[in-house]
């Protein structure tokens, strides 16, 4: 058939019959019967030749050598694209159903729903998927075949909410009722029995009420559209659960909807209905004057119907009806009461689908609005679990999303069974398998944005944390070696490190070794704590070093309220306001000012404590204080320039600077002059924002 030709469904039916002969789905249903059932369902929803042809032709995919070529040649590319897209969606949905039963759709409905919508290039595919599921449930209901319960749970979790969001109510209620019948058979039959009539009888009673109300309105000259809507069993069950009501307490098992032209006609109709029928006044709700939070508007009242049973009446204008039935931002939220995880994007996609369903597919490709580009990709684990990743994510991001240790140990990846580079950008619907090494060790290259190994900020943070932990461990190991050497020099090799840590006030041996590795603990401090009775020596005094004089006015410290005594800031701990400080009286050099938590002060013996004196900071706002900072970064051109620009912007002088390389990192040490701790914190925060900087801290 040429693409411009009218599609003849009868010819398609005759064409596929021999191809589908003897074929069965894994549920046991005949393929041909399933296709016919899907076509019948869709015909009642949308008159779209391409859509109905795709429903018939989907299963030729497994019967032909080149299905794309054959479909395009005989039915045109629009039908071929629909069938191809449906094949992709069905294949991925089957993966999500889990080969091992570990990640069922009913346990991850939000993720699978977003995956399904992301995969649909032509969102009419969603209609095909919903109709196929409804036909499967009808088959289970007719044959009592095994497996209905699992399909019912999936439908309630995924497919009936989709039908609800799309406003396909006739499909939605049947999906829900059949699913409840399979998942909660006792509950279903209880409610069905309580209704005391078949669905057909309920429809008949509502039709009688519709005719009566229509005659009443016509008599009074009110132009209106009156239609009935019997409450289906699942909806009744949900309301009984939500409001904790018995069946006898429900007043809206049957409902009639009246649509008029204006708001004034709404109230006029309400007055006429209430004056002509027995009214249950306590059930009156005016959602026009006071709309629901989601914007829903309508008048609700309950009357006693023609057969003496409660009948809910809904009165609204056409605009209110369109908003209630089709407004994506309102009605489905009210019905489902669920929290969305995909933000406004999913609402926009569904709104677009509503528009697209009203079009005739006469364009070469269904247009996708720019604002509907998804910012996420949805991929699957080999067990069928759907992961939601940021757009541009790679297998390394995927590994870190699953587990931090898996990310550290990631060495390779397979996507849909094929080996790929670790910086491959993942696409929605792909299945990713991670190949790991025995030992976790991420690569420094992963942090290089230009190489594209990581897209997720979370993944980058995990990698940085790993390297920071390695750096800390290296400092601990180095500190342990230093302490062992110091103990050997002073002849104290038998001392346990646990005891030494306790004597020096550290919580653990690792804390002790880390302090030594960062040059915060020296041999003299260890010697002092292990030899408390030793006499003062010149070396002890030299351990309390002082800063060199700055070219600027150095910070002032008051000694017991007097600022005329000679004071110097200790070089070992570089105190700055508002650090807590203490003075140490030296011989011939005045008072050396230390931080209160300085290891050299903390480890003084009793005689040393006698030389401590109370000091405090002066109020001189022009005073500056030297402080050492350490910056660790990945080396790059312009790095030093970026750091020094921050010092210049903050008007801070650099007194000293040195740098070293360690395991591929660039370690820079600066001595800068600041006016207080606020200046220091602001400077460190700015440096941490510089590209390639791993950490910036006070030494």
Strands, helices and their partners?
Elements lengths: L8 H12 L10 H13 L5 H9 L9 H9 L1 H20 L12 H11 L4 H20 L4 H19 L2 H15 L1 H10 L4 H21 L5 E4 L4 H11 L11 E6 L2 H14 L8 E2 L12 E6 L5 E8 H9 L4 H6 L7 H14 L18 E5 L5 E5 L4 H8 L1 H6 E6 L2 E3 L11 E5 L20 H33 L7 H7 L5 H9 L5 H8 L7 H5 L14 E3 L7 E3 L11 E5 L5 E5 L3 H4 L3 H4 L2 E2 L1 E3 L7 E9 L5 H11 L4 E9 L2 E10 L2 H12 L4 E6 L1
Parallel strand pairs: 2-5, 12-14
Antiparallel strand pairs: 1-2, 3-4, 4-5, 6-7, 8-9, 8-10, 11-16, 13-14, 13-15, 17-19, 17-20, 18-19
Helix pairs in contact: 1-3, 2-3, 2-7, 3-5, 4-5, 5-7, 6-8, 7-8, 7-9, 8-9, 9-10, 10-12, 19-21
What does this structure look like?
With 699 residues, this protein is an alpha+beta fold. It has 4 domains: 1-183 and 343-364, Hypothetical protein af1432 (Orthogonal Bundle), CATH 1.10.3210.10; 188-336, Beta Polymerase, domain 2 (2-Layer Sandwich); 375-455, Beta-grasp domain (Ubiquitin-like (UB roll)); 625-698, Alpha-Beta Plaits, CATH 3.30.70.260. 46% of the residues lie in helices and 15% in strands. The chain is elongated, with a radius of gyration of 38 Å. 35% of the residues are buried.
């Amino acid at each position: 058939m040429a693409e411009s030709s009218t599609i003849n469904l009868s010819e398609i039916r005759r064409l596929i019959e021999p191809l589908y002969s003897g074929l069965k789905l894994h549920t046991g249903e005949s393929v041909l019967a399933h296709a016919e059932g899907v076509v019948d369902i869709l015909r009642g929803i949308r008159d779209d030749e391409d859509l109905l042809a795709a429903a018939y032709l989907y299963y030729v995919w497994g019967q032909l050598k080149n299905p794309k070529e054959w479909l395009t040649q005989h039915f045109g590319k629009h039908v071929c694209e629909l069938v191809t897209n449906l094949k992709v969606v069905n294949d991925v949905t089957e993966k999500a159903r889990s080969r091992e039963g570990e990640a069922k759709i009913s346990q991850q409905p939000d993720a699978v729903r977003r995956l399904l919508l992301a995969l649909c290039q032509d969102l009419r595919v969603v209609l095909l998927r919903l109709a196929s599921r409804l036909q499967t449930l009808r088959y289970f209901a007719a044959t009592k075949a095994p497996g209905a319960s699992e399909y019912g749970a999936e439908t309630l979790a995924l497919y009936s909410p989709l039908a609800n969001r799309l406003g396909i109510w006739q499909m939605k209620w049947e999906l829900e009722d059949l699913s409840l019948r399979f998942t909660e058979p006792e509950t279903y039959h209880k409610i069905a029995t309580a209704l005391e009539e078949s669905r057909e009888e309920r429809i008949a009673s509502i039709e009688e009420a519709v005719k009566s109300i229509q005659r009443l309105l016509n008599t009074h000259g009110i132009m209106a559209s009156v239609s009935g809507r019997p409450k289906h069993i699942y909806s009744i069950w949900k309301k009984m659960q939500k409001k904790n009501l018995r069946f006898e307490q429900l007043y809206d098992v049957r409902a009639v909807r009246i649509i008029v032209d204006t708001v004034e006609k709404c109230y006029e109709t309400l007055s006429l209905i209430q004056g002509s029928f027995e009214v249950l006044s306590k059930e009156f709700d005016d959602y026009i004057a006071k709309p629901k939070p989601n914007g829903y508007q309508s008048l609700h009242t309950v009357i006693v119907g023609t057969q003496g049973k409660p009948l809910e009446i809904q009165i609204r204008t056409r605009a209110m009806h369109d908003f209630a039935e089709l407004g994506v931002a309102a009605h489905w939220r009210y019905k489902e009461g669920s929290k969305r995880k995909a933000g406004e994007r999913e609402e926009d996609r569904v709104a677009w689908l509503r528009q697209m369903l009203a079009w005739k597919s006469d364009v070469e490709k269904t247009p996708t609005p720019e604002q509907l580009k998804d910012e996420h990709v949805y991929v699957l684990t080999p067990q069928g679990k759907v992961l939601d990743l940021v757009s541009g994510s790679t297998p390394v991001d995927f590994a870190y999303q699953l587990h931090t240790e898996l990310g550290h140990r990631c060495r390779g990846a397979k996507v849909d069974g094929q080996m790929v580079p670790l910086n491959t950008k993942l696409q929605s619907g792909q299945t990713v398998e991670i190949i790991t090494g025995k030992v976790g060790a991420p690569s420094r290259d992963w942090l290089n944005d230009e190489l594209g190994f990581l897209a997720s900020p979370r993944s980058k943070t995990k990698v940085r944390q790993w390297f920071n932990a390695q750096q800390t461990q290296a400092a601990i190991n180095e500190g342990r070696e230093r302490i062992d050497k110091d103990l050997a020099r002073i002849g104290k090799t038998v001392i346990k490190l646990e005891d030494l840590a306790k004597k020096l006030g550290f919580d653990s041996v690792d804390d002790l070794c880390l302090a030594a590795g960062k040059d915060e603990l020296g041999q003299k401090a260890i010697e002092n704590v292990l030899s408390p009775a030793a006499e003062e020596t010149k070396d002890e005094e030299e351990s309390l070093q002082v800063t060199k004089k700055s070219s600027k006015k150095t910070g002032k410290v008051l000694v017991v309220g007097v600022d005329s005594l000679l004071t110097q800031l200790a070089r070992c701990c570089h105190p700055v306001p508002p650090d807590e400080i203490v003075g140490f009286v030296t011989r011939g050099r005045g008072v050396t000012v230390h931080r209160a938590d300085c290891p050299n002060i903390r480890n003084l013996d009793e005689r040393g404590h006698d030389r401590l004196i109370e000091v405090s900071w002066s109020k001189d706002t022009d005073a500056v204080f030297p402080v050492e900072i350490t910056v660790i970064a990945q080396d790059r051109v312009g790095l030093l320039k970026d750091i020094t620009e921050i010092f210049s912007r903050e008007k801070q002088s650099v007194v000293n600077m040195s740098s070293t390389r360690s395991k591929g990192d660039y370690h820079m040490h600066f001595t800068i002059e600041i006016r207080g701790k606020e200046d220091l914190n602001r400077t460190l925060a700015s440096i941490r924002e510089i590209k390639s900087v791993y950490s910036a801290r006070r030494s």
